Backbone:
């Protein structure tokens, strides 16, 4: 009954009200439907609007509330039309009266006739509408019939408005009552499986052997099943949610990526050892699970003489530039912001001043004694961020192990085009080694955008070795560099020159040559190009050609050539592919040594969702050396490393 009444009512009313505007009908009412025209007319007139999803659902039985709403809408529409026509009649009558009263002076009979014609036409339209009396009477009776439903609909609307106001009030109250501490972090699982080839260990880019046996197989070349390492780490970051006052945060970390393993048969290994040192020559192996604080600091905003000061106290992280004060990313096969952010972490303070375009940071703290939960044993086994300085400390050996530091970083802005940065840092040790217990690092760097597409970078850094305040070594200990980059839309080209004296030893990160990190005693050119073929496909090639400066670290006639290429392809929104390779060759005439190394790489990345990733990676290594190459490597290396890393942020 309801369904038939709804469709019949729509058909009759739609025939009477022929609208002017043309619009689309409801998507679920096909042109061959018997009530198509009627429904189209009512939609054009604004009488029917359908359901919230835009559909009319002609086959669905209407309930009393829905029919009441439709009847009321039609009734109000008709009342509006009749009222409008009556207003037009009244207006025309007034105009006719005005014309008749002033006919002698202001109008002629033709004007009066035109008005009468208009009035007659309007009266005819009114007479037509009078023929709708039965429809209007029926509508009135239907409105009366559905009074209860109409009152309920109006009540529901008013109630909805009231509910929305109440919901907003409750949300505002909840925001004000937010918890005092916010907790988030990340979880990481990593597998590293190394193998040997032709009874030779492989070699990683940080100089670590792959396919290195453990236990009864310690020191023997093995396959992946006997050189399998599983690492895990979870971080919990706590931070205050207060909008005013001191801001604090702390990151507690639990995992087995730190520390060293002394296994059966005298085997020795680690996953990553610590967060700052390259584990050159050390095989992969798990250690026990440890707990440590990555950071634990409070930020206090204050002022002095009307000048704002940013003061951060506790366990803090800081860096300036790779040539002065920046931590190496010593985990080339593990990707995590906490490990890779380049900050040196220390227990101390950072004070920041700002005078418009001039900024000054003063940072000081203790570098040693930042231990994990195994706070006993050897210093290398328990230090989280040991700072070892000197020329190539990972392979040559550190000249100084830093216990505390004091530094200043002064920056001058060059408009909106760049800046000039000056550094002065004192690194102190509590021990004397080779007559040295302090290093002073100083120099400057400039970054400037000549145009929107051309940028330059260059600078000078020096590291003086001292005993207290007396210089012990202040020559052959500096570095200078100059770089330029060109951006051409999809292509970027960069080129540069560097000169690094043999005894330059800042706690920085200026790159690697093959498996030698932060190389010194080298000078020469480098460059590269990166090109986005399209939004999914990128190609990049980098290369360098260096030669020895004076032979203090390398032989005096050394020449080294390196080239690296990488292809990245975004297969889909969730899958990405990487293919790459790297080749480095050393040439000398003294001793006739000409070693060379090659790495081939393939990687697959799965973005499982916005917070989870799974990365697969395989690297093939092949090192061909001559006897006497040095750096603890006396034979060829050939093997590979497979890694899988799952990461989840929460």
Residues:
């Amino acid at each position: 009954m309801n369904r038939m009444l709804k469709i019949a009512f729509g058909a009759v009313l739609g025939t009477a009200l022929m609208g002017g505007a043309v619009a689309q009908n409801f998507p679920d009412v096909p042109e061959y439907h018997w009530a198509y025209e009627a429904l189209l007319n009512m939609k054009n007139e604004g009488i029917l609007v359908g359901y919230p999803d835009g559909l009319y659902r002609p086959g669905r039985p209407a309930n009393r509330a829905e029919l009441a709403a439709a009847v009321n809408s039609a009734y109000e529409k008709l009342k509006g039309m009749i009222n409008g026509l009556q207003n037009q009649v009244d207006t025309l009558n007034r105009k006719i009266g005005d014309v008749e009263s002033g006919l002698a002076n202001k109008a002629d009979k033709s004007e009066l006739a035109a008005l009468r014609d208009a009035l007659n036409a309007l009266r005819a339209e009114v007479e037509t509408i009078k023929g709708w009396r039965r429809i209007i009477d029926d509508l009135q009776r239907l409105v009366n019939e559905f009074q209860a439903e109409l009152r309920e609909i109006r009540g529901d609307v008013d109630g909805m408005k009231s509910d929305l106001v109440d919901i907003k009030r409750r949300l505002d109250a909840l925001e004000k009552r937010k918890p005092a501490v916010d907790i988030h972090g990340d979880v990481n699982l990593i597998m590293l499986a190394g193998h040997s080839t032709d009874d030779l260990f492989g070699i990683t880019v940080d100089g670590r052997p792959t396919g290195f046996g453990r236990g009864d197989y310690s020191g023997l070349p093995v396959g992946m099943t006997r050189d399998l390492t599983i690492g895990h780490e979870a971080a919990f970051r706590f931070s205050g949610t207060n909008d005013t006052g001191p801001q604090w945060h702390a990151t507690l970390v639990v995992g087995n990526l730190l520390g060293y393993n002394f296994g059966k048969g005298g085997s020795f290994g680690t996953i990553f050892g610590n967060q700052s040192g390259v584990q050159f020559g050390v095989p992969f192996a798990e250690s026990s699970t440890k707990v440590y604080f990555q950071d634990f600091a409070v930020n206090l905003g204050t002022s002095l003489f009307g000048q704002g000061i940013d003061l951060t106290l506790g366990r803090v992280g800081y860096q300036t530039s790779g040539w002065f004060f920046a931590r190496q990313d010593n985990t080339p096969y593990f990707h995590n912001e906490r490990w890779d952010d380049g900050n040196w972490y220390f227990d101390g303070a950072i004070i920041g001043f700002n005078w418009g375009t001039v900024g000054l940071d003063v940072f000081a703290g203790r570098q040693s004694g930042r231990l994990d939960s195994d706070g006993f044993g050897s210093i290398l086994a328990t230090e989280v961020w040991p700072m070892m300085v000197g020329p190539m400390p990972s392979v040559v050996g550190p000249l100084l192990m830093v216990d505390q530091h004091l530094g200043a970083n002064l920056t001058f802005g060059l408009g909106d085009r760049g800046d000039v940065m000056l550094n002065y840092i004192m690194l102190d040790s509590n021990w004397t080694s080779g007559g040295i217990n302090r290093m002073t690092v100083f120099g400057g760097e400039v970054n400037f955008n000549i145009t929107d597409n051309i940028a330059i970078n260059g600078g000078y850094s020096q590291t003086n070795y001292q005993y207290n305040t007396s210089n012990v070594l202040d020559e052959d200990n500096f570095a200078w560099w100059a770089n330029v980059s060109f951006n051409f839309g999809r292509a970027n080209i960069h080129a540069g020159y560097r000169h690094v004296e043999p005894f330059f030893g800042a706690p920085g990160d200026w790159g690697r040559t093959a498996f030698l990190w932060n190389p010194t005693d080298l000078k020469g050119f480098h460059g590269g190009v990166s090109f986005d073929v399209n939004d999914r496909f990128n190609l990049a090639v980098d290369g360098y050609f260096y030669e020895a400066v004076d032979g203090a670290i390398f032989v005096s006639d050394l020449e080294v050539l390196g080239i690296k290429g990488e292809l990245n392809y975004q297969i889909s929104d969730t899958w990405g592919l990487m293919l790459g390779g790297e080749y480095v060759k050393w040439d000398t005439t003294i001793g006739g040594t000409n070693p060379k190394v090659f790495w081939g790489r393939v990687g697959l990345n799965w973005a499982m969702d916005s917070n989870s990733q799974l990365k697969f990676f395989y690297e093939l290594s092949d090192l061909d050396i001559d006897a006497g190459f040095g750096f603890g490597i006396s034979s060829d290396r050939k093997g590979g490393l497979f890694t899988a890393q799952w990461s989840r942020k929460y």
